[in-house]
Amino acid sequence: MARAFWKPTAASASTPSRNAYMPKLVEQQQLCDNRWQVLDDQQPIPPSHYLLPLARWLAAREIAADGAPFGVIIDGDQPLEELAPTLAELPLIAIHFAKFADGRGFSTARLLRGRYGYRGELRACGDIFRDQLFFLQRCGFDSFELPDEADQSWLQSLHDFTVSYQAAAR
């Protein structure tokens, strides 16, 4: 069963914790509240903790000048060359997985960590599964948006294996 990526609505921009679907979030291997809002191309910028689509970020980088925590959300198939010059300005990059079988987000994370030297937070969101968390972490992801049905076993999956054949991105 594919899970739809959360699409922001006009109501969600004002009070995300009450009006919008807020997926569970794993940060620093702990389950926590997700205070980040995903904005579309038209929604006004909230005071804090928002993710912009890549095109909106590239078109209007000055909107984050007030110092509010922000980031961008990209698809795994988006080229990184346009984003590369602005990486130092981004505390968070969320990579959206449209389908669980699409591995391009894994490659994108490895490229961001390896080739581009990105040191900020990388978040996996979209159609991800428990069995992928360990490998997502090894590719450089720091945080993960989980579906509603996720439970404590999802956190345990970060430690499913004790031996790895390849080096981790972090």
From TrEMBL:
One Pfam family here: DUF934
Record protein name field? DUF934 domain-containing protein
